[in-house]
């Protein structure tokens, strides 16, 4: 399990980021090499290297709650004036020991209870989940710690709703939901894919995506986006 707030999943020891893992992510560890562990993320089968310091101790309790807002802090005491010791992103997992007076005492400190999805209940609207990250900076390969990319936004929202989802947009285009014919009328929650890019349909002639044009998670008019992009839509999927 990942014990750090977040960790980059690298293509080689000390290499480039392929994806990103958040605290509480379940992992299979296959080998250790030069201070790095070669791991597989159980949620999507993604493999890569991460710093061994990011791994949780073997006795770490399994998460029973996850961060439900864009980000939260972990306080030393259940008091807004106490010191904050760390920062967690949407979807990060913690183990709640007890709730009292609006605070959750967790394995790593205290978090406002309304910042958590205690019991990790599946959400029902992936677009609403993605909307919680509006304005987050675009960061290629990231899943919400310091930034996020297009496929990370789709994966994070799907996982919050209990929907299995791979990490890369090409795999998402092949595996998520059902293919839509070009004649089908788009509706909220549909996914549009371009070469190397994916966006949620969030409303009539509107998409929501993490993109390198505005460099953040943003709404954009679908007609304007299609006029701006050089590549045509290559897939339309409905969950």
Automatic annotation (TrEMBL):
SUPFAM superfamilies: Cysteine proteinases
InterPro entries: NLP_P60_dom, Papain-like_cys_pep_sf, PG_Endopeptidase_C40, SH3_16
Listed Pfam families: NLPC_P60, SH3_16
Domain NlpC/P60: 120-239
Source organism superkingdom: Bacteria
Keywords, comma-separated and alphabetical: Hydrolase, Protease, Thiol protease
Similarity field: Belongs to the peptidase C40 family.
Protein name, per record: Peptidoglycan endopeptidase
Source organism: Pseudooceanicola antarcticus
């Amino acid at each position: 399990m990942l014990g750090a707030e977040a960790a980059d999943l690298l293509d080689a020891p000390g290499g480039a980021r392929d994806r990103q893992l958040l605290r509480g992510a379940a992992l299979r560890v296959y080998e250790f090499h030069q201070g790095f562990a070669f791991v597989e993320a159980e949620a999507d089968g993604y493999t890569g290297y991460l710093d061994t310091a990011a791994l949780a101790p073997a006795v770490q309790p399994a998460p029973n709650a996850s961060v439900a807002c864009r980000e939260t802090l972990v306080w030393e005491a259940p008091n807004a004036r106490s010191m904050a010791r760390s920062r967690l992103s949407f979807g990060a997992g913690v183990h709640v020991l007890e709730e009292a007076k609006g605070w959750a005492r967790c394995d790593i400190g205290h978090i406002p209870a309304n910042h958590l999805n205690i019991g990790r209940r599946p959400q029902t609207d992936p677009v609403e989940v993605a909307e919680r990250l509006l304005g987050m900076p675009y960061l290629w390969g990231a899943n919400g710690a310091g930034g996020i990319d297009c496929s990370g936004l789709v994966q994070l929202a799907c996982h919050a709703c209990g929907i299995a989802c791979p990490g890369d947009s090409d795999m998402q285009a092949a595996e998520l939901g059902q293919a839509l014919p070009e004649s089908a009328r788009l509706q909220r929650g549909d996914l549009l894919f371009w070469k190397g890019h994916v966006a949620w349909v969030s409303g009539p002639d509107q998409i929501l995506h993490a993109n390198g044009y505005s460099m953040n998670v943003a709404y954009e008019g679908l007609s304007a986006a299609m006029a701006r992009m050089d590549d045509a839509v290559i897939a339309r999927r409905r969950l």
